[in-house]
Amino acid sequence: MKEVHVNLHNIRNCICGKCPSFPGKWKEMAHADMPGLFCGHGRSKLEIDQIGCVCGECEVQKEHELTGGYYCVSGKAV
Ligand code: SF4
Ligand code: SF4
Asked: Is there an atom of ligand 2 within 6 Å of 69 CB?
């Protein structure tokens, strides 16, 4: 497993925005408060309804050899 850095490449590859659990109200918040890329940023400040996680389909997951999911709840991939 490789550490996920917050960089443009990873931000562009993150598919959290397409996830059913991604809270819609993030879209209304300031940019700095709506990171996605939770495997690099750490967990969300918001309560998440865990109704599915698409991390398994994500290029960031593959490139960094991650095996988990729900980083928005559990925090950074370590
Ligand atoms: S693995 Fe999950 S949290 Fe990390 S960038 Fe991909 S979709 Fe986002
Ligand atoms: S970490 Fe997983 S569950 Fe959370 S928003 Fe991203 S894809 Fe969805």
From this structure: yes
Percent of the chain's residues with pLDDT above 90: 67
Domain ranges of the chain: 8-74
Go through 33-47 and write b for each residue having 16 or more CB atoms within 10 A of its CB, e for each that does not.
ebbbbbbbbbebeee
> Which distant-in-sequence residues (6+ apart) come within 8 Å of 45 by Cβ?
33
pTM across the whole model: 0.89
Give, for ligand 2, the residue of 15, 43, 44, 71 to mutate: max count of ligand atoms closer than 8 Å to Cβ: 71
More confident residue, 22 or 54: 54
